[in-house]
Amino acid sequence: MSEALVLGTVRQAIETAVVIALPMLVVGLLVGVVISILQTVTSVQDTILSFIPRAAAIFIVFGLTFPWMLRIVTSFARNLFLRLPELVR
What is the mean pLDDT of the chain? Predict the structure, then answer.
């Protein structure tokens, strides 16, 4: 197994992980910024007020994007298994 093949496979795995996590991270960031602005404007500094909406938004996005995420991971795993003889050599 060559070094380039291993690096290519690891790079593809990291790219897949980033693509899958990106929608939830972006929504968490946007909701966090909006809640922080609202807390600053209203002078309410409660940690629960910032945690619950962010967690709910991330959970909703996870529920909506789960079929897409499953297709991406399944495709990556299928390609990895198909390339297994090439990786073993």
Answer: 91
Residue with the bigger pLDDT between 50 and 37: it is: 37
Q: What is the pLDDT of residue 60?
A: 97
Q: What is the C-alpha to C-alpha distance for residues 24 and 49, in angstroms, rounded to an integer? A: 19
Residue ranges of the alpha helices (H) in the chain? Answer: 3-42, 47-82, 84-88
Question: Which two three-digit tokens encode residue 87?
Answer: 């990786």
Q: Which of helix, strand or coil describes residue 2?
A: coil
Closest-CA residue to 46 (of 58, 57, 34, 36): 36
Query: Among candidates 73, 71, 65, which has minimal Cα distance to 23?
Result: 65
49 alpha carbon, distance to own chain's centre: 24
